[in-house]
Amino acid sequence: MKVAVVGATGMVGEVMLQMLADRNFPVTELIPVASEKSVGKEITWKGKGYTVVGLQTAVDKHPDIALFSAGGQTSLDWAPKFAEVGTTVIDNSSAWRMDPTKKLVVPEINAHELTKADKIIANPNCSTIQMVMVLAPLHKKYGVKRVVVSTYQSITGTGVKAVQQLENEYAGIQGEMAYKYQIHRNAIPQCDVFEDNGYTKEEMKLTRETKKIIGDDSIHVTATAIRIPVVGGHSEALNIEFHNPCNLSEIREILHHTPGVVVQDNTDTYTYPMPLYAHGKDEVFVGRIRQDESQPNTVNMWVVADNLRKGAATNAIQIAEYLVAKELV
Ligand code: 2RA
Fold first, then answer.
1. Mean pLDDT (the chain, rounded)
2. How far apart are CA 243 and CA 233, in angstroms?
3. Measuring from each residue's beta carbon to the nearest atom of ligand 1, which residues come in under 6 Å?
């Protein structure tokens, strides 16, 4: 497979390259792609040197697959150009996610919807991926009616500038700000910009994308997304109301048998998910599973995942693996 990685020098792009190698994806030719300012940079992949190229050069090479993580405008401008030469694009930006003609895919949930005709495939938002990995199997069993989710999001979701801001603040250095406020010793109740309804784009992604991935517009989601000074992954407190009665041991059993989900749930041994331990892993970790004593058919749980891995790069490459396995590329 001739594979282009668009945004190869960014945080997600670098994890994409790592995962292509770690998962032994059948790459016959790698094409690292970045913006003009990074063209000519040398990168090493699987012990071999590669020179970063520009977008048009990459299109002209007619890759089989292009993994994008280069921002929404680049995806809007260039994904169609790759598709026109026969490339299948898997895009990690929000550009195509809610386009009714494009598939929004978490392989464990809805990869079966993919066909050869899908030339631009959207990778969901990181905080959505980890939530639907848990919601989807429970929705099948009990019918999800409403989700109240609070997220505690890693600064790596913002990118290198945010990591640098935290490091500067640790060192007492005043540097470039990724956020409006100090993030060290703080929690900022804003991820992305505000919409007219008072929610942020990040919060509305959890609402909108969940319905599309699970394929049920009746699922209600209300979210509050918070940025915290953590690097290992995103954490989420879920309050899930079902249409039907549920029981905790059955829920644990269902999640235990869900591919890509690991249950870490034992208060006697202080066993529960944390970003410190999810960092660098591909699974979605769930714990603190307990009945909501304030209302029937409702449970609380805590979900943690590495937002750069399953939340972005790994999910995108799992989509590519599915396409190859089903000979859709
Ligand atoms: C964030 N999910 O965490 C968004 C984009 N990666 O900022």
1. 98
2. 31
3. 125-127, 153, 157-158, 191, 202, 307
Residue 294: helix, strand or coil by DSSP?
A: coil
pLDDT of residue 173: 95
Q: Which atom of ligand 1 is nearest to the CA of 156?
A: 3
User: Would you call 106 helix, strand, or coil by DSSP?
Assistant: coil
Cα 61 to middle of ligand 1, angstroms: 31
Our separate counts of H helices and E strands in the chain read: 10, 14
What is the chain's Cα-based Rg? 20
- ipTM for the assembly: 0.96
**Cβ(231)–Cβ(156) below 8 Å:** yes
Which amino acid, residue 245? P
- Summarised one tens digit per residue, pLDDT across range 291-326 is 999 999 999 999 999 999 999 999 999 999 999 999
Domains of the chain: 2-123+312-326 (3.40.50.720), 127-154+187-305 (3.30.360.10)
Mean local confidence (pLDDT), 100-124: 98
